[in-house]
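Our consortium's second objective concerns turning raw sequence data into structural hypotheses that experimental partners can test. To show how far this objective has progressed, the report includes one record in full. It was chosen at random from the queue rather than selected for favorable results. The single chain below, 309 residues long, was entered without modification.
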Amino acid sequence: MQEMLTLFRESVSNRPYCTDELGALYIRPRAAALERRYVQPNSPWQVKWLVYDVDRSGGFIDWYDRPNVPPPNLVIGNRENGHAHVLYGLATPIQQRAYGGRDNPLRYAAAIDCALTDALDADPGYAKLIAKNPLRNDTWWVDAPRGVLYDLDWLADYVDLEPYRDRRRNLPAHGLGRNCALFDNLRVWSYRAIRRAWQDNLSWEQWLASALVKAAEYNTFEVPLGAGELKAVARSVAKWTWTRFDSKTFTKIQAERGRRSGHSRRRKAAEIKDRIKRLWLEDPYATNSEIAKWVGVSERTVQRVKRGV
């Protein structure tokens, strides 16, 4: 256990949030913060610990009897009611997107985070900003069931990621999923809004301000992101769009999208035409109405295909 506690101590940032009583947070130097009952385990720029709030009696040992739950690196429990924080340490910390992190690793980590929340039946409304301090074992029960840090693939082997594989849908809006959801929504908005910024000759400061306003509008999660995270995500999206997009780039992207869309439409039209021809040859007595229902098109489409044969 001592090795894991040492890793936790060394991973805490130089000036983390901390407190002895929930509801009032303070920023203190690390040495002072680690004397408090609650401390911020992750820095704003990277995730070293996946943290879960098992807010029920027996939460300190609840993980042990649950399927698809890997052994935690740290479990910190309330001596009075058994409620616990469950922590998984990452051998390679995940860089937050707003601080240069790449999209795929963060989305992968967010999907695992959501799946672990499900597997542990942990509180999805937990903000994950501060956690029970495992170094205060005079206050909490503390256990370290696993003495080796995880990589993401190892954690993924335990949990069911199937509900979170569709990149076209936002991840659940809790935990790391909030950051991904905010970034995705703001990114899509920025692609259109940057054109209005060109037309209105906005300065960089004005463009950033508009991104901050829009980010605040999207920050409607049950547990909203803090002001620091919100500002970092807004600045990241605004800077990327401002430096990478201009009128020529946008025109090129639109032309490429139009080309792909036209190719897709032509391919779909050819497939429909082939199906109508095949059904007509297989059953020459089938009516246009019947063929239209089989293929899922209008009778006029069937008529046009027959006239062209």
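The partners drew two points from this record. The two ends are 78 Å apart (CA to CA). Strands lie at 17-19, 26-27, 38-39, 46-54, 74-78, 84-95, 131-132, 140-143. Both points have been shared with the crystallography group to help prioritize constructs.
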